[in-house]
Each structure stands twice: as structure tokens, then as C-alpha cells.
Specification:
Layout: H1 5-48, H2 73-102, H3 112-133, H4 138-159, H5 169-172, H6 175-197, H7 220-223, H8 241-272, H9 276-301, H10 306-330
Helix pairs in contact: 1-2, 1-4, 1-10, 2-3, 3-4, 4-6, 4-10, 6-8, 6-10, 8-9, 9-10
């Protein structure tokens, strides 16, 4: 009985062609991740310059595709630049979806994460419209921030080529700590978004105290009301200062917990990791935590300047990227054995 080597040749050819196609897919995803990071930073810039209602309609601006000089052109351009970059990102994500669907039979081609990414970006478009039409409602704007970071995280995940190896037992024990760090970071991002969208960053102008007190008089009852009805213009914030202080102070306490957890996970990974990628990911996560805390303290100390406040949002995105890099490194794919040589019987 003979073995048809031609069939095996076709399998080898397909397997050899697949990595090149997936490589270009990952490069496009990396370009999308860079654009998504830009969108996150621009979104912070728009909020911090009070330009969220620079264009009160959507997707245009006062009925035009670009701002007009007779309608607060400065703020309008801030908002529209953000929309232009976000629109370009939407095109790239649509292209990634088309690519994944065409090559869906390729075992190396990611599909489900790309479909999820497309659904998230569609939701982002809806939230972007609601952000304007609901007059910067904090819950919607915070959800929009979450969507932006989720988009960034998915694109970054798709751009990373997983290692082909078997994870040792020491790294398997690190996985649960990495997942805990993800949960803690998500909660802290919500607190950061809630602080920003309620204009609570200025409520505590001193550090480490707040209003020169370690525990000022704060209103927690009104601080975390998620929905306050329709027709309220939230630009500049509507909460009294005690409620804003409660939000700000909670964010600070959350930063302490998040910093301890993420820094601990990073250092533990650096110590117990076996592969170079895992060790490097742990070191980058620890460095990102120190950098973000430093930017946060400096932002308060210097009176919340626009540059530092924007960098603080960029620091949150950096934490997402480094933590996902660590998670990806801790979940390698099993090494694929080379194709066995089959001898044809004589």
C-alpha cells in the first residue's frame, strides 16, 4: 500500500503560506492599535478642553462635514479631528473583519476576536452619537471610554504573535494573578472615567490630602448615581463639590489598590517567569504602573495642566497594553510538531 505524497505536499504548502498571511493581518491590527491609542488620547483631549459639545450633531458638525468658522471653530475642530481618526479606525477594523472572513478556514487566522472587535466598534459609534445627543451624560461617556480601551485591547491582542511553547508550572501559577490584575484594572478604569466625566479631578487640588484633610466631608450618596434622567447638560459637571470629592477620593484609593496589585504581579512575574517574553512583560507592567502613578501625582500637584491630564489617560492605555502583553505571554500556544516524514514503501 502506497502513500500519496502529493496530498501531504499540498498540506505543507498551505501551512507554509498561512503564516505570511497572518503576519500581514497582525501588522494591520498593529496599525489599528496605534490608531485606537490615538483615538483614546484624542478623546481625553476633547473632554479636557470642554469640546465634547463642540459639534452638537452627529456625525457631521452643524450639518457640515467639517467645522465652520461661525460656530466655535476651535472646539469644533477638536471634536471633528477625533471623529476623523475614529472613522479611519473603523475602516481598518472593517478591513480586518473582511480579511478574517475570507481566510476563516485558515487555522492560524483569528476570527471570533475580530467579530467581537467589529461589534464593539459598532457599539462605539452608537455611544459616540449618544455622547453628543444626551449632552455628555457621565454613564454614556464613561462607557464610550471603556469601548475605546476595549477596542485598543482587542487590536493589540490580535497584533501579538503568540509563542509556540509549553508553559512551565511556575508560569501556570502566575495566570490567576494576571487575571486578578485584569479585574482590578477594569474597576480602576471605571473610577478614572467616572472622575473625568463628572469633572471631579479638580475637587482635591492637594496631595496626598484632599482639601487639606485626610478624610474631608464627602457625599458618597450622590457621587455614584449612574443615571440622572434626560435633558441635563453635563458639560462642566452638575455635582456639588462634596460629591466630586467623594469620586476623586475613591479614585485615589482605587489607585493605591491597583498600583499594589499590578506592581506586585509585574515583580512576581519578573521573578518567577521562565521565558524572556514573560519576564519582559512583567518588567514593562511594573514600569507602566510606576509611570502612571507618577503622572497622576504630578497632575494634581501642578494643578491639572492639559498635557499631564492627557498623558494620564495615555498612561491608562499603556497599562492595558502591558497587562494584555503579559496575559498573552502567560498563555502560549503549544508547539506545533514539524510535519513527519513519510517513507513510501518499496
Amino acid at each position: 500500500m502506497s502513500v500519496d505524497s502529493t496530498a501531504f505536499g499540498h498540506v505543507r504548502t498551505a501551512a507554509a503560506a498561512a503564516p505570511g498571511a497572518v503576519l500581514w493581518f497582525r501588522r494591520l491590527a498593529l496599525l489599528g492599535a496605534a490608531l485606537a491609542a490615538t483615538v483614546v488620547v484624542l478623546g481625553a483631549w476633547v473632554r479636557l478642553t470642554n469640546a465634547g459639545l463642540g459639534c452638537p450633531d452627529w456625525p457631521g458638525c452643524y450639518g457640515h462635514l467639517y467645522p465652520q468658522v461661525d460656530h466655535a471653530a476651535g472646539k469644533a475642530w477638536h471634536e471633528m479631528i477625533h471623529r476623523y481618526v475614529a472613522g479611519t479606525l473603523g475602516v481598518i477594523i472593517t478591513a480586518l473583519l473582511g480579511w478574517a472572513l475570507v481566510r476563516r478556514r485558515d487555522p492560524e487566522q483569528p476570527l471570533i476576536p475580530v467579530v467581537l472587535l467589529f461589534l464593539v466598534v459598532c457599539l462605539q459609534g452608537t455611544l459616540g452619537a449618544l455622547t453628543v445627543t444626551l449632552l455628555l451624560k457621565p454613564l454614556i461617556v464613561t462607557a464610550h471610554l471603556f469601548g475605546g480601551l476595549t477596542t485598543l485591547g482587542l487590536l493589540w491582542w490580535l497584533s501579538i504573535t503568540p509563542e509556540r511553547r509549553v508553559a512551565p508550572a511556575a508560569e501556570l501559577r502566575l495566570q490567576k494573578f494576571a487575571l486578578l490584575a485584569c479585574v482590578v484594572l477594569v474597576m480602576q478604569i471605571f473610577l478614572g472615567g467616572w472622575t473625568s466625566t463628572n469633572y471631579a479631578a479638580v475637587a482635591c487640588p492637594d496631595f496626598p490630602t484632599c482639601q487639606r484633610s485626610w478624610w474631608p466631608s464627602m457625599d458618597f450618596r450622590n457621587a455614584f448615581v449612574l443615571w440622572r434622567g434626560l435633558g441635563i447638560d453635563y458639560e462642566g459637571g452638575v455635582l456639588a463639590n462634596p460629591a466630586r470629592m467623594a469620586i476623586h477620593y475613591t479614585h485615589r484609593l482605587g489607585a493605591v489598590v491597583t498600583g499594589v496589585v499590578l506592581l506586585g504581579v509585574g515583580l512576581l512575574t519578573l521573578r518567577r517567569g521562565q521565558s524572556t517574553r514573560v519576564k519582559r512583560a512583567g518588567a514593562l507592567l511594573a514600569a507602566a504602573v510606576v509611570l502612571q502613578i507618577s503622572i497622576g501625582i504630578a497632575t494634581v500637584h501642578f494643578g491639572i495642566p492639559l498635557l499631564l491630564a492627557t498623558l494620564h489617560n495615555a498612561g491608562a492605555a499603556t497599562l492595558v497594553l502591558t497587562l494584555l502583553w503579559l496575559v498573552r505571554a502567560l498563555w502560549p500556544r503549544r508547539r506545533v510538531l514539524p510535519f513527519a516524514h513519510v517513507d513510501r514503501p518499496h
